């Protein structure tokens, strides 16, 4: 798929609803979580993935109020005379606190406190509006959004690693998705979310370069691992094992797929070592160079990478091509609908704010002075925190190459940057 079916978890909708994810340079966090999970997946295999899943399902540890950067002792605001309670506010603070350093500049604490009050107010405005309109999300609605979000990750271990990074479990994500689904239904009924066909065609014509697929190959591989820091004896043992399998793979009539299932020590073993289609930059250089120099059905000699010894079978080659409008129109519509949804949400929030009488109760919020640092103590890499309703910046994000969504998920042990 050319575009991610981006749900607004961690972005405008969930941030404003006070859910588990608050926008905080989410693209970098997701990238870091994915890289960490990839390395762990390679190191631990199925047992590690199962452990990740169990941890992701567990309830995150609750931070005591006195350990938070600030907390509410009573309602933080009144909206048209009705109170915005402390519990909602403190839950939002806990989600932010899990990603803050031990010391935070006093000015930053004041900014965070003001932002969180605004988030709590937005949460109240949106939730009360949806309740009055009797908007309900079905299990099917939630499952659809949850599955679309999970499919953004190459495997379950990476998905669970991201949840741990964000201080979430799957039940919390589903709760956020239910809010998303209710809000999307309301926006649809109030404003409409249809994307005109001519807008899709215009976008395609103006961004043709985004739909160009590079030269790609499809390959299978068998991996015999060599642990980091392994001594000469361990390397020799792994090489000898790989050499025996290589002789089987090159024998006449050999079933490479079956051999991969039986002998490979990489995450792709259950699917016969199949890596799907990939471009030259998607694998570590040693692997990519050999794969792109092969012909269909050819089996390589041993290929050494930092992960161990690989035996590669090339399955298919395909030349670079530009996807047609028919091939990508559904993906473009998803992207344009996402952008429309964000704009309409901003409009919706503005209308709610302008139509409400709001009184903020700052005296009911206590700041943890032990966390307050002076300006010259500003820690490096302080996370960027967005104002309520803003979309977190997606720095460096690019649309995947044409057809990327139809390839099998890559083996993380072969991706550049994996360790």
UniProtKB/TrEMBL annotation:
Originating organism: Lujinxingia litoralis
Record bears the keyword Nucleotide-binding: no
InterPro entries: PPIase_dom_sf (IPR046357), PPIase_PpiC (IPR000297), PPIase_PpiC_CS (IPR023058), PrsA_foldase (IPR050245), Trigger_fact/SurA_dom_sf (IPR027304)
Residue spans of biased composition, Low complexity class: 388-407
GO molecular function per UniProt: peptidyl-prolyl cis-trans isomerase activity
Domain of life: Bacteria
Region (Disordered): 28-59, 373-419
UniProt xrefs under SUPFAM superfamilies: FKBP-like (SSF54534), Triger factor/SurA peptide-binding domain-like (SSF109998)
Name of the protein: PpiC domain-containing protein
UniProt KW keywords: Isomerase, Rotamase, Signal
Domain spans labelled PpiC: 214-316
């Amino acid at each position: 798929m050319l575009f991610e079916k981006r749900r607004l978890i961690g972005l405008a909708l969930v941030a404003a609803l006070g859910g588990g994810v608050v926008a905080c340079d989410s693209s970098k966090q997701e990238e870091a979580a994915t890289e960490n999970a990839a390395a762990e997946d390679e190191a631990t295999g199925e047992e590690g993935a199962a452990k990740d899943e169990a941890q992701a399902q567990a309830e995150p540890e609750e931070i005591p109020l006195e350990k938070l950067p600030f907390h509410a002792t009573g309602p933080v605001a009144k909206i048209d005379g009705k109170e915005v309670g402390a519990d909602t506010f403190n839950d939002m603070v806990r989600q932010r606190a899990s990603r803050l350093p031990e010391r935070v500049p006093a000015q930053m604490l004041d900014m965070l406190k003001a932002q969180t009050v605004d988030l709590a107010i937005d949460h109240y405005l949106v939730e009360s509006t949806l309740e009055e309109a009797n908007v309900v999300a079905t299990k099917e609605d939630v499952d659809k959004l949850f599955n679309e979000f999970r499919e953004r990750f190459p495997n379950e271990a990476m998905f669970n690693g991201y949840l741990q990074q964000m201080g979430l479990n799957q039940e919390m994500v589903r709760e956020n998705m239910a809010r998303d689904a209710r809000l999307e239904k309301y926006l649809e009924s109030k404003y409409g979310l249809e994307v005109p066909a001519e807008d899709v065609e215009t976008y395609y014509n103006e961004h043709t370069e985004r739909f160009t697929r590079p030269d790609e190959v499809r390959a299978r591989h068998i991996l015999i691992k060599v642990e980091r820091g392994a001594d000469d004896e361990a390397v020799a043992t792994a090489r000898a094992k790989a050499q025996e399998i290589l002789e089987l793979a090159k024998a006449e009539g050999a079933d490479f797929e079956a051999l991969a299932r039986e002998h490979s020590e990489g995450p792709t073993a259950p699917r016969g070592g199949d890596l799907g289609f990939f471009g030259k930059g998607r694998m570590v250089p040693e692997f990519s160079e050999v794969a792109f120099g092969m012909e269909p059905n050819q089996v390589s000699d041993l290929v050494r990478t930092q992960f161990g010894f690989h035996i590669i079978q090339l399955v298919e080659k395909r030349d670079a091509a530009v996807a047609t409008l028919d091939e990508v129109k559904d993906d473009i519509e998803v992207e344009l609908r996402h952008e429309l949804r964000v704009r309409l949400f901003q409009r919706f929030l503005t209308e709610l704010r302008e139509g409400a009488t709001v009184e903020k109760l700052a005296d009911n919020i206590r700041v943890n002075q032990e966390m307050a640092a002076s300006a010259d103590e500003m820690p490096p890499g302080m996370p960027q925190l967005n104002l309520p309703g803003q979309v977190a910046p997606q720095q460096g994000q690019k649309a995947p190459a044409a057809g990327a969504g139809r390839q099998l998920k890559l083996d993380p042990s072969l991706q550049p940057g994996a360790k």
